[in-house]
Amino acid sequence: MILQAPLPFGIPAYTFIPEDWMRTGRLRLRQWVKEDLAPFAAINCDPQVMRHLPALLSREQSDAHAARIHALIEQRGWGFWAVDSLQEKDEPRFIGFVGLHIPQAELPFSPCVEVGWRLDRAFWGKGLATEAARLAVRIGFEALNLPEIVAFTARGNQRSSAVMERLGMRNDPADDFDHPAVAEGSALRPHRLYRLTRGEWRSRTADSARNGLPQGR
């Protein structure tokens, strides 16, 4: 078990998340299993996937990262869940992670809870990151009762920024920051910060429902 200080924003030490909150017709979020380790390692050594992150991960580093994520989900009931595509002919296929996380680094806007994702490149461009992230955002606001969810990415990562915008998150350039965990002088150090409050999310969700707009993508 990972021992940590009390969670921010009055989040309970453990929150049960109903299984039907964690799936759509195309994908599901779940706890990690050992069979995820090899495909996760392949994702973490793909230069295109990791282009806007500081370094590729070795198999040992990737496995350790997955173990930490697994332990946090076991402890809290939520985290960076494994994502399965349910569109495969034979059986669900692991395609990466999507979920919620409390950053370890002390950031200018800490304490915070972020929504984040990392998907197999073969599944990019299908709306799956947005679809899964919408599940995570709902869990954050309805199950954890968060006042706000943030997301951030290296300034040049237009693909992730586009997902954040599709989630209804907003960027104020005055909030952008240099990530303290990235080396000074690195082109990846400048980051964009996106925010979404619970009130904004509720208003956006209600507007989409009134207009008959899909929430999956």
Quick synopsis:
With 217 residues, the protein is an alpha+beta fold. It is 29% helix and 20% strand.
Give the termini separation.
35 Å
**Strand order across the largest sheet:** 1-2-3-4
Structural class: alpha+beta
SSE topology string: EHHEEEHEHEEEH
Radius of gyration: 17 Å
Number of strands: 8
- Helicity range: 25-40%
Strand content: 15-25%
| Low confidence ranges | none
Average pLDDT score? 94
Identify the overall geometry.
globular
Strand count, sense and barrel status of the largest sheet are: 4 strands, antiparallel
**Total DSSP helices:** 5
What does this structure look like?
- By secondary structure, the chain is an alpha+beta fold.
- The protein is 29% helix and 20% strand.
- The longest helix has 18 residues, at 59-76.
Give the topology.
Elements: E1 27-30, H1 37-44, H2 59-76, E2 80-85, E3 93-101, E4 114-119, H3 128-143, E5 148-154, H4 158-166, E6 170-171, E7 177-178, E8 190-197, H5 198-210
Antiparallel strand pairs: 1-2, 2-3, 3-4, 5-8, 6-8, 7-8
Using brief descriptors, characterize the structure shown.
217 residues; alpha+beta; four-stranded antiparallel sheet; globular
